[in-house]
Amino acid sequence: MSEKTKVDSKKMHEETRQVELVIGKILRVGVITSAIVILIGIAMYFINGGGGYDSGFPRRFSAIFSGIAAGKSYAVIMLGVFFLILTPVLRVVVSIYAFYKENDKLYVIITTAVLIILIFAMMMGYRS
Predict the structure, then answer these.
(1) CA distance linking residue 53 with residue 38, whole number of Å
(2) Helix/strand/coil for 7
(3) Strand, helix or coil at 59?
(4) pLDDT for 51-107, tens place per residue?
C-alpha cells in the first residue's frame, strides 16, 4: 500500500468513527429527552389529577401543542412519545449523510428509500 492510500484509509476510518459517535449521541439524547418529557407528563398527571382530556390522548400535532400550552399532562406524554419516534428517524438521516461521505451510493439510495417509507408511514398514520 502506498503512503497516500494509508493516510486516506485512516482518514476515512476516523470520519466513520466520528459519524458513529454522532449517531450514538443522537440515540442517547433522543431517548433521554423522551424519557424526561414523559416523566414530566406523568408527574403532571398525578399533580393535576388527570390527563386533561375526556376522550383519551391527543393525536394531532395541533392538539398536542395546544394541550401543552394548556398544561394537559396527556399532551406532554404524547410529545415525549413523538420524540421517541423521531429519534430513529434522525438516525436514518445521519446515516444517509454518513454513506454519502463514504461515497457509498447504493447505501445512500437504500437508506433514502427507508427514510421515504418512514415519512410516508408517519403521514398515513397522521391521516388516520
Answers:
(1) 17
(2) helix
(3) coil
(4) 777 777 787 888 888 889 988 888 999 999 999 989 989 999 989 988 888 888 999
Closest C-alpha among 62, 63, 61, 60 to residue 52: 63
* Residue-range definition of the domain harbouring residue 86: 3-127
pTM higher than 0.90: no
CB 51 within 8 A of CB 45: yes
Domains in the chain: how many in total?
A: 1
DSSP 2: -
Q: Which long-range contacts (CB under 8 A, 24 or more apart) does 9-14 make?
A: 12/102
Spatial distance between the Cα atoms of 103 and 15, rounded to a whole number of angstroms? 12
SS3 per-residue string spanning 74-118: HHHHHHHHHHHHHHHHHHHHHHHHHHHHCCCHHHHHHHHHHHHHH
Give the separation between CA 69 and CA 79, rounded to whole angstroms: 12
